Amino acid sequence: MKMELYSARNGFRKTRPKTEKISPEVYSLLLGCCNQYKNNLIHMFSEEEHHVFTNRDYTGFDEGNFETRLIVLIPTLLRDDSGKFRAPIASESYDQYAILDLIEFFSENIKDITINWNNQYKDYQIIDTCESSNVFVDFQRDINELFVESGVLYTLTNKKIIERIVENSPLSKEVEQNIEAIKEEGTKELLADAIALYKTPNKKNRPLAVQQLWGAFERLKTYYSSNKVKSAERIVQDMAGENDDFNTLFNAEFKQLTDIGNKYRIRHQETDQTDITDSKYYDYLFNRCLSLIALAIQYLE
């Protein structure tokens, strides 16, 4: 249950720094949250058990099959000596994306269940699985509350995938809706792919996202015809209207972004390209290029 504690209510708590790093403590909390929903996977991992005192069979959760399946699917999940999944300790290296994979696995597969005791003596529980998956809403809420409380810049979306939260970015729902409205399928597809790559938690996808975005930018310049120069001029004129100053500004920005795409190792891999040496530069490049595209597509016919 989300609640605001005394120090937060009264302004004594320092703002928690935002991060994409999942600490061992946060990893442990996320793992614990998943474990609370394991019975919602019983439709996938069930085994017949026998209760000695009542001499009856009932369906239980198959821990062994669950652990085996997950270690094959997500091999970097940490395990203890008994094979149980565990959180990392502070001094060891670990794959933080493994816990995100686990969250997505639960999101995709959990189903609603009903749980009842077999009798008044509560010998064992009877778990029945439903076809619905309304429980995902609760799981999503619990996971996202942990992300928010810990300052971790990820979110579990309604599509049941983890996306990173990009702060101070022109990327918004309105921009994504405008992209969906683009008539030229090639440009729309490149932009959608670039955004999807940019939202993934894995930093290795940042160069690919920027590459795709610059590809969309170059294709956008041919929106009206195969004559790139004339087509781009029309886009700029529509953006600027009758304002010569903004016409000059947008022309200069189109040219500079074109030069950046040619000079730096974004779209090409020649030996004379300038390497992008700091991963943080990819955020800058992505946001700068997207800002111009987001404005331009609002003026397309």
Going across the major beta sheet, what is the strand order?
1-2
What string, H for helix and E for strand, traces the elements in order? HHEEHHEEHEEHHHHHH
State the helicity in percent bands: 40-55%
Shape: elongated
Derived structural class: mainly alpha
CA-CA gap between termini:
48 Å
The number of strands is 6
Average pLDDT figure: 90
User: So what's the oligomer here?
Assistant: single chain
Low-confidence stretches: none
Task: Give the domain tally.
Answer: 2
The number of distinct helices, counting runs of at least 4 residues, comes to 11
Radius of gyration equals 25 Å
Q: What about the largest sheet?
A: 2 strands, antiparallel
Strand content: 5-15%
Structural features, described:
The chain contains eleven helices and six strands. It has two domains: 6-162, no CATH class; 167-299. It has 301 residues and is mostly helical. The protein has a two-stranded antiparallel ribbon. Strands 3-4 form a two-stranded antiparallel ribbon. The protein is elongated. A hairpin with a 4-residue loop joins β1 (46-51) and β2 (56-61). The longest helix is centred in the last third of the chain and has 20 residues, at 244-263. α2 packs antiparallel against α5 (135-150) and α9 (228-240) crosses α10.
